[in-house]
C-alpha cells in the first residue's frame, strides 16, 4: 500500500487525461461494491462531496468488511471490537486482502498509462489530476490507518479484558450495591483447574485481574486440597464439604466392588448417580427454594439425589471460555424468580497446559494469561451490568501441578516377579488392586504384598501402606472403593506397575500428598460479603461448602467441615458457632488411706512400703487452692471436654501434670502439662510403677499383664523425667500407664527426652496434651468403649500430641494474650518401625516421621472424643486454631 501511494505521488506531469481513467475506474469499483451509492467524479463539486475519513467505516460496513460499533455497543460487549462475523481473535481473510491489493495494483497501473493524447490536455486538467492524486492518496492512507487500527485493537483487545473493571476505585463497601431487581447478591463459584498456588508469585505480572481480586478481596497464600489431589475428588469436596472417603469420589478412576463397576471420566458410568454421595451445594440451595446454574462442574450433570441444577450443561471441553461467560450473563439477566442465586463456572486451564507441557512451560504462562483475560471479561461484564459490587465471587482451584519425569518413577514389577495377581493404579497416589474381581477384592493378601514392597532400597521413594495405616490427615481409608493396598510417594515421584503404564513421563501431574507445596490450590473471595484487603492463613477446601451456604443464607447439609471456621473471611457472619457441650462430666477420685488395698501386682524393688506411703500422702495432701493453681498452669486454655456420652472419668491432680482418667478404659483419656524452656532433661528412669490409691482396684490395670507379654509393654503418658515442681515418682503410677508396643515406646521416649526440650527452647515454653486414640474401624471417629476383661486396658490404635505455645515467642503459654500457635500429631501405634524402615530411633528419623503424621486439632478431637480450647480465646479463634494444619 505505501508503494502504491509513492507511485501515485511520483508520476510525471502532463498526463491530464488520466482523470478520465481515474473516474471510470472508481465508478466501476463503486458499481461492483457500493451498490446503494454511486460515486460521481464529474466536477470539482462532486469531488468535494467525496467521503472523508469519518465516513470510511460506513462504506466498509456496507462492503461487509467491518462492523464499526458505537461506544455504547462496544461497552455492552465488554469492550470487544468484532471483525465481521468471526470471533474476536480471528485473523483477516488473507484471500480477501490479497484480492483488494490486486485491485489497487490494477488501478495504479492504469494511473501510469502513457497516452500521447494526454499530453495535449489543457493545464486545467493537469491541476484536476493533481487534485485527484492527492485525494486518492489521502483516501488510501486513511483506509490503511483504519485497517491497522482495527487489527491492532483486535490484538490488543484480547489482552485488555478487565481493563474497565481494573479502573474501578475498589472501595470497601459495607452493603451490597445491587441494581433494581436484585434483592440479594448472587454467589458465583469459579474453578481454574490446576492453578498451582505458586503461580500467584511466579507469574504475578501475567495475571493482573487475579491480582486485583486478591488485593481487594479476601485470599489465602494457598488452600489445601483433599487427598488424593485429583480433579473429581477435589471439585466434589469443594461443593459438598466432604472428604473423598465420605462422598465416594475417591479418584478420577475407581472400582466399586458392591456393584462390580468401574468409574472413569471417559465412560458414561460417570453419569450414574450411585457413585456420588453427599449433597452438593446446588442441591442444598434448591431444597431451600433457590435457583442454581452450573456451566460445568464435576457432578453437576448427574442426577444426584434425584435432581439436577436449575440450569446446567453437559460437559464439553470444546465450548470456549467466552461462550461460558456469555451464558453466565444470560442467566444473570433473567428476571428475579427465574434468575439463579448460585452459579458455577469451570475452566480446564491451566490444568490442560500443565499436563501437556509442564508447570514451568511458556504454555502454562499463556494459559494463565488466558484465564486472567476471561476473568477480566467477566468482571467487565459485571461492571457493565452494575453487578460488580453486588455479586459474591469465589475463585478456587482444585489442586496444583508437579513436573513429570520417569526419572522420578518407581516400577513395582522391579520389586516383585509375580505380578499377575494384581494391578497398580498408576500415579503419585497409586493403589494396588487384585486382578480377579470382585472375588479377591477383600481377600487378597494386601498385607503380604505391602511387606514385600517395603524398605527394599535406601531412601526408597515409594512407601507401601495398608490404608488404615495412612496418615489420619488424609481421611482416605473408610470407603470400600479405596483399595487396602496403597503406595505413598515422595514429593515429585510416581509409581506404576511398569514404565509402559506410566501416564506422565513428561509434562505435569498431580495427585500427591496434599501438603506438598506444588499441590496447593488457590482461594479468592471477592464481593460485598467478603472482607476488604484481607489475607487469612491457609485452610482446607472442605470448609468452602459451609462458607457458600452462609453467603447464600441457607442451612448446610451434614459435612466434614467445621461450620464457622471461616467466619473471619466474612464482613457479617451468618452462623454463630458455640463450643460443644460436654456429654460426660468428671466425678471425684479421692482416697483417705495412703496404703492401697490392692497393689495390682505392681512392685518396685527400690521402694519400701513406707516410701510409697509417703509418696501417696503427698498426692492426697493437694488442697483445693493448690488444685486451682495447677489447673491454671497445666490447663491454660481450659480443661478438655469429654463430648462422648456415658464416659465416666475423674480429674487427677499432680504437681507436674493433670490427667483425665477413664474408669471404663482403665487408662488416661489425656494428660496435660506446661513446661518452661528446658535446657536439658535427665535420661528416662527405669519404669517401676505403683498402684494409684485414688483409683478403685476394679478400675485400674494390672502390672503383671506386661510382665507376661513379650510383644506388649506399657508406656507413661507423662514422662517421669520431665519433673519440675514435684517428684518424678508422681508419674510412676498405674493411672499414667498405657499399653504400648516396645518399638513405639522407644520413639515416644525419644520425643519427650530430645525433641520436646528442643521445641520448648524454640517456643519459649509449651503446653502439651497427649492421649490414646481408638479407631479400629478407621472411620476417623472415636470408637465406643468395649467391655474390659481381666483388667486389661485396650490397646490404642494411635496416640495424639498437641503442642500449644504463644504466637509471640517472647511470651510463655501462661502469659500469652495474643494468637496461639499449635502443632498436633496423630501417631500410628504399630509394633515395628517398618513404616520408616527402622530410622525411627534417630532424632531426625523420629522428627520426619512425626511430620508425616501431623494433623489438625479437629482431627484429634474427632478421634479422641474430646474438645479443646474452651477458655481464653473466642469461639471463632478456637475454630481457626482447630482447623489449622502446621506443615512447616
Automatic annotation (TrEMBL):
Gene Ontology molecular function: dinucleotide phosphatase activity; metal ion binding; nucleic acid binding; phosphodiesterase I activity
Database matches in InterPro entries: Alkaline_phosphatase_core_sf, DNA/RNA_non-sp_Endonuclease_sf, Endo_G_ENPP1-like_dom, ENPP1-3/EXOG-like_nuc-like, His-Me_finger_sf, Phosphodiest/P_Trfase
Signal peptide (from-to): none
Keywords, in A-Z order: Glycoprotein, Hydrolase, Membrane, Transmembrane, Transmembrane helix
Single biological process term from Gene Ontology: negative regulation of fat cell differentiation
GO CC aspect terms: cell surface
Region (Disordered) location: 91-124
UniProt xrefs under Pfam families: Phosphodiest
Residue ranges of domain DNA/RNA non-specific endonuclease/pyrophosphatase/phosphodiesterase in the record: 653-875
TM region positions: 134-154
Domain ENPP1-3/EXOG-like endonuclease/phosphodiesterase: 654-875
Annotated PANTHER family: ECTONUCLEOTIDE PYROPHOSPHATASE/PHOSPHODIESTERASE, ECTONUCLEOTIDE PYROPHOSPHATASE_PHOSPHODIESTERASE FAMILY MEMBER 1
Name of protein: Ectonucleotide pyrophosphatase/phosphodiesterase 1
Organism annotation: Neogobius melanostomus
Amino acid at each position: 500500500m505505501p508503494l502504491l501511494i509513492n507511485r501515485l505521488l511520483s508520476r510525471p506531469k502532463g498526463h491530464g487525461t488520466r482523470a478520465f481513467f481515474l473516474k471510470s475506474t472508481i465508478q466501476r469499483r463503486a458499481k461492483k461494491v457500493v451498490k446503494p451509492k454511486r460515486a460521481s467524479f464529474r466536477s470539482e463539486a462532486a469531488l468535494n462531496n467525496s467521503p472523508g475519513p469519518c465516513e470510511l467505516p460506513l462504506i466498509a460496513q456496507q462492503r461487509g468488511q467491518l462492523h464499526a460499533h458505537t461506544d455504547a455497543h462496544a461497552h455492552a460487549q465488554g469492550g470487544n471490537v468484532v471483525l465481521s462475523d468471526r470471533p474476536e481473535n480471528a485473523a483477516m481473510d488473507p484471500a480477501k486482502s490479497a484480492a483488494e491489493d490486486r485491485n489497487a495494483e490494477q488501478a495504479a497501473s492504469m494511473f501510469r498509462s502513457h497516452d500521447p493524447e494526454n499530453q495535449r490536455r489543457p493545464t486545467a486538467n493537469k491541476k484536476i489530476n493533481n487534485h485527484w492524486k492527492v485525494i486518492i492518496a489521502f483516501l488510501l492512507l486513511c483506509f490503511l490507518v483504519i485497517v491497522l487500527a482495527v487489527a491492532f485493537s483486535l490484538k490488543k483487545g484480547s489482552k485488555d479484558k478487565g481493563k474497565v473493571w481494573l479502573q474501578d476505585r475498589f472501595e470497601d463497601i459495607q452493603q451490597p450495591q445491587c441494581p433494581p431487581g436484585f434483592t440479594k447478591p448472587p454467589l458465583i463459584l469459579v474453578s481454574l483447574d490446576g492453578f498451582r498456588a505458586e503461580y500467584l508469585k511466579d507469574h504475578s505480572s501475567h495475571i493482573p485481574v487475579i491480582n486485583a481480586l486478591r488485593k481487594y478481596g479476601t485470599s489465602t497464600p494457598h488452600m489445601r486440597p483433599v487427598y488424593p489431589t485429583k480433579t473429581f475428588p477435589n471439585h466434589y469436596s469443594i461443593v459438598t464439604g466432604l472428604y473423598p472417603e465420605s462422598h465416594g469420589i475417591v479418584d478420577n478412576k475407581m472400582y466399586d466392588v458392591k456393584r462390580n463397576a468401574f468409574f472413569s471420566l471417559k465412560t458414561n458410568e460417570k453419569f450414574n448417580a450411585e457413585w456420588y454421595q453427599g449433597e452438593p451445594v446446588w442441591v442444598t440451595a434448591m431444597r431451600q427454594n433457590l435457583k442454581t446454574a452450573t456451566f460445568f462442574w464435576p457432578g453437576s450433570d448427574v442426577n444426584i439425589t434425584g435432581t439436577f441444577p436449575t440450569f446446567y450443561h453437559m460437559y464439553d471441553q470444546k465450548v470456549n471460555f467466552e461462550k461460558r461467560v456469555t451464558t453466565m450473563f444470560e442467566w444473570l439477566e433473567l428476571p428475579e424468580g427465574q434468575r439463579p442465586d448460585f452459579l458455577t463456572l469451570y475452566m480446564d486451564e491451566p490444568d490442560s497446559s500443565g499436563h501437556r507441557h509442564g508447570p514451568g512451560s511458556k504454555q502454562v504462562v499463556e494459559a494463565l494469561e488466558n484465564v486472567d483475560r476471561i476473568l477480566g471479561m467477566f468482571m467487565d461484564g459485571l461492571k457493565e451490568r452494575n453487578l460488580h459490587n453486588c455479586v459474591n465471587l469465589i475463585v478456587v482451584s482444585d489442586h496444583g501441578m508437579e513436573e513429570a519425569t520417569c526419572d522420578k518413577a518407581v516400577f513395582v514389577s522391579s520389586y516383585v516377579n509375580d505380578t499377575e495377581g494384581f494391578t497398580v493404579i498408576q500415579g503419585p497416589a497409586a493403589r494396588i488392586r487384585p486382578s480377579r474381581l470382585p472375588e479377591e477384592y477383600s481377600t487378597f493378601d494386601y498385607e503380604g504384598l505391602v511387606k514385600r514392597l517395603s524398605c527394599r532400597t535406601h531412601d526408597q521413594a515409594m512407601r507401601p501402606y495398608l490404608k488404615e495405616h495412612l496418615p489420619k490427615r488424609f481421611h482416605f481409608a473408610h470407603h470400600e472403593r479405596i483399595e487396602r493396598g496403597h503406595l505413598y510417594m515422595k514429593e515429585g515421584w510416581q509409581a506404576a506397575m511398569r514404565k509402559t503404564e506410566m501416564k506422565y513421563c513428561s509434562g505435569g501431574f498431580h495427585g500427591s500428598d496434599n501438603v506438598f507445596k506444588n499441590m496447593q490450590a488457590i482461594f479468592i473471595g471477592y464481593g460485598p460479603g467478603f472482607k476488604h484487603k484481607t489475607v487469612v492463613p491457609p485452610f482446607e477446601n472442605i470448609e468452602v461448602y459451609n462458607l457458600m451456604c452462609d453467603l447464600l443464607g441457607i442451612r448446610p447439609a451434614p459435612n466434614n467441615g467445621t461450620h464457622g471456621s471461616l467466619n473471619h473471611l466474612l464482613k457479617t457472619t451468618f452462623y454463630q458457632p458455640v463450643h460443644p457441650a460436654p456429654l460426660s462430666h468428671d466425678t471425684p477420685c479421692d482416697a483417705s488411706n495412703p496404703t492401697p488395698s490392692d497393689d495390682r501386682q505392681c512392685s518396685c524393688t527400690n521402694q519400701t512400703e513406707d516410701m510409697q506411703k509417703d509418696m501417696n500422702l503427698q498426692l492426697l495432701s493437694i488442697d483445693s487452692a493448690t488444685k486451682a493453681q495447677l489447673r491454671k498452669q497445666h490447663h491454660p486454655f481450659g480443661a478438655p471436654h469429654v463430648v462422648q456420652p456415658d464416659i465416666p472419668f475423674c480429674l487427677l491432680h499432680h504437681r507436674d501434670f493433670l490427667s483425665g482418667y477413664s474408669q471404663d478404659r482403665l487408662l488416661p483419656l489425656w494428660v496435660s502439662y506446661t513446661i518452661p524452656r528446658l535446657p536439658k532433661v535427665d535420661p528416662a528412669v527405669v519404669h517401676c510403677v505403683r498402684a494409684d490409691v485414688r483409683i478403685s482396684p476394679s478400675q485400674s490395670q494390672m502390672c503383671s499383664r506386661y510382665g507376661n507379654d513379650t510383644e506388649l509393654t506399657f508406656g507413661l503418658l507423662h514422662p517421669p523425667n520431665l519433673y519440675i515442681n514435684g517428684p518424678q515418682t508422681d508419674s510412676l503410677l498405674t493411672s499414667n500407664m498405657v499399653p504400648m508396643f516396645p518399638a513405639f515406646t522407644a520413639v515416644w521416649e525419644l520425643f519427650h527426652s530430645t525433641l520436646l526440650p528442643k521445641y520448648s527452647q524454640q517456643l519459649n515454653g509449651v503446653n502439651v496434651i497427649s492421649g490414646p486414640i481408638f479407631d479400629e474401624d478407621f472411620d476417623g471417629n472415636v470408637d465406643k468403649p468395649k467391655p474390659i476383661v481381666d483388667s486389661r486396658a485396650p490397646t490404642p490404635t494411635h496416640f495424639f500430641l498437641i503442642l500449644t505455645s504463644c504466637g509471640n515467642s517472647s511470651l510463655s503459654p501462661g502469659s500469652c494474650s495474643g494468637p496461639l500457635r499449635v502443632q498436633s500429631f496423630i501417631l500410628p501405634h504399630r509394633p515395628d518401625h517398618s513404616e520408616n524402615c527402622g530410622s525411627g530411633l534417630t532424632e531426625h528419623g523420629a522428627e520426619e516421621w512425626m511430620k508425616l503424621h501431623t494433623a489438625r486439632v479437629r482431627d484429634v478431637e474427632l478421634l479422641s472424643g474430646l474438645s479443646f480450647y474452651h477458655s481464653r480465646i473466642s469461639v471463632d479463634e478456637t475454630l481457626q486454631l482447630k482447623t489449622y494444619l502446621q506443615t512447616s
